[in-house]
Amino acid sequence: MEFELTEEQRMIQEMVREFGRCQIQPLVKKIDEEKTIPDSIIKGLANLGLLGMTVSPQYGGAGADPVTVGLVAEELARADFSCAVPTFFLVQCAWGFILNKYGKEEARQAVLPWVTKGEAFIGIASTEPDAGSDVASIKTKAEKRDGTYILNGEKMFISGIHEVINQLPRGGGYVTLAKTDPAKGARGISLFYIPLKGTSGITTTLLEDWGRRGISTGGFALENVVIPSSYLLGEENQGFYYAMEGFDLARAIIAVVSSSVAQSALLQAMDYMKIRKAFGQPIARFEALQFKLAENWAKLEAVKLLSYKALWTHNLEQKGEKSRWETTKLCAAAKMLAPAFAFEAINDAIQCFGAFGYTEECPLHLALRGVRSYYWAEGTLEIMKIIVGRELLGKDFIASR
After folding, report:
1. Domain boundary residue among 202, 233, 264?
2. Which of 99, 235, 258, 329 ranks highest by number of CB atoms within 10 Å?
3. Do 157 and 219 form a contact (C-beta atoms < 8 A)?
4. Phi, psi values for residue 233, rounded to 5°
């Protein structure tokens, strides 16, 4: 068992930490208030080779392994504890990876080079107004006709809508789940790349989130949208399984982000505890606060290690050295624990600040609201428990059957 990073990973970690400290951290409050990630940050991430870094070098990516992606996500979360920048980063890593692996050349060329340049966005469109974690119940359909696919349906609670439509020059699009054989349930779902900007028949909407506001959330409706058959990812009716592969990667990265955001909050609380006095001494001397700090630090460190184990396993699974189900179990377990542990730790950190912690001047409310979004993103915590239980006991014990 080896916990040391490679020299290359250490260099990347230090590079991203410095970029975050200088270019992101001073703008966190502005990002939340103006509800957008500045173009300078997006371009800076692209110039460092971080956007879509899981994509193959021929499309401008680095072909980065999942552990290295986790290290970058950890540093971005350390800098932007509102979770906007790390979410912008992780979504494109996870779904750029899926398009790169399963997409046909025409679809890859259409978006991946622009993603890695910071000029386009790629995300996931799975959730619908009446279907979230229950992916098999989606209603969006795709009908094959004369070498094309005709799509109808609606997607909601999707990250990056504003960025695609209004901010990035090349727009971008979404890896999108649609039923090609509705009678087969999950086994009749296919995966498509759908370019959003300028595509006829697509209507977008934006939602107002109360956290993680630097990256937009919204949805889009599809009305007889025509896309070429070359935008089908992999084989027909296999999309559910391709998507789960992307969700596994995203879940493990989210777990790293959650723990990093919370550890950043603990560091700020520790600094304050050392200078704030009560009853004639620093409040850091009081065991009530020390014990909470110790418990939260231990939980966060433990779940971060689990998250990196999940990322490491994901990499081995891609090489055929670990099973898909072992990977899914570990990624779900990390995602199941990390947001809740992080939320608790941030809430306790805010408590250390007293009444000041409840003011806008104390920035930790950004972290609390940002991490709370991960209770749902890429699958709810409840679904993560179902997945872990299923993998421990076997599919014969799934209650929903």
Report:
1. 233
2. 258
3. yes
4. -90, 125
Nearest-angstrom CA–CA distance, 395 and 86:
34
State the pLDDT at residue 133.
Answer: 79
pLDDT at res. 21: 98
What's the mean pLDDT in 246-261? Answer: 98
Mean pLDDT of 358-364: 96
Interatomic CA distance for residues 231 and 195, integer angstroms? 9
Q: How confident is the model at residue 119 (pLDDT cuts 50, 70, 90)?
A: very high
> Cα(15)–Cα(23) distance, rounded to whole angstroms?
12
Mean pLDDT over residues 101-110, rounded? Answer: 97
**Do residues 353 and 362 touch, judged by C-beta distance below 8 A?**
yes
Q: Is 279 left (phi over 0), alpha (psi -120 to 50) or beta?
A: left
User: What does the pLDDT look like over 175-192, one tens digit per residue?
Assistant: 999 999 999 989 999 999
Residue appearing with tokens 């890429």: 378
What residues does 192 pair with on adjacent strands? 176, 232
The range of the structural domain enclosing residue 128 comes to 122-233
| Number of domains within the chain | 3
CATH number at residue 193: 2.40.110.10
